Amino acid sequence: MPRSIPLALPPALPSELLEYVLSHQAYPTTVIICQPRASFLTSLLNSVDITTPHDNLGEAQSPLTRHNLLVPTLHQIATSKHINLVFVPTVSHLRAVLAAFPPTPADEIPPLQKFDKPGRQVPLLVVYGLVELHRDTSEWSAQGLSNSVSNLVEAGWRSERRVVAIEDRGLDEEYYETVLEEGEEEGLEEGTGDDRKWKQLCKVWEQRVPILNGSVKRAGLDSEDGAWSGRTVEVGRVLGRWFRFGRGDWVT
User: Which domain of life is it from (predicted)?
Assistant: First the structure.
């Protein structure tokens, strides 16, 4: 298949990540979760809860049962069993997985997926939490991020899959419930509630990191930009060498 430009999407909740993968994947697809399995599952359960509308429809209709991920549709059952999940708790684990990532065998016959919509899905290599995995480590720098991203892009090229990088948005429940309501009620000078949400999510790419590994953080400075000795650069500038930035299905 023709190789696609790697895609960087704004931060998403774990539930939003899985819904995106189920909607866009084709066999074979691998999702690399940059956190321990137990932490991800806990965050997933919590994110399903806060993104489900709660109302008073009676005891027979539990709000959790209405979330898309908890409805066992034929499409969801058929596709989920062919998605490979890998959990990597450290940068070293991530790079080891990427270095050993196998190419797709030329003679492999993909399973028949009757419920896919032709033309929409492609094989994916998704990494969730790539930037955050490097934080507070010796690899928190443009050099460290570039090393990991180059390994990721190479693994995607070798396996003929589209690379997608998505950060963990975290469970900011108060923001999730109020930001769009405020946008609708008060009006926004620079755009709609979705525009505001987009700008909030994009802040992850505005973080600044030192250029080289091993940069020294100077004590007594509150400004993140001035805390590092030497030059710094935005995370978005680092990722922009390889990735095209886009909007996820959760920001429409």
Answer: Eukaryota
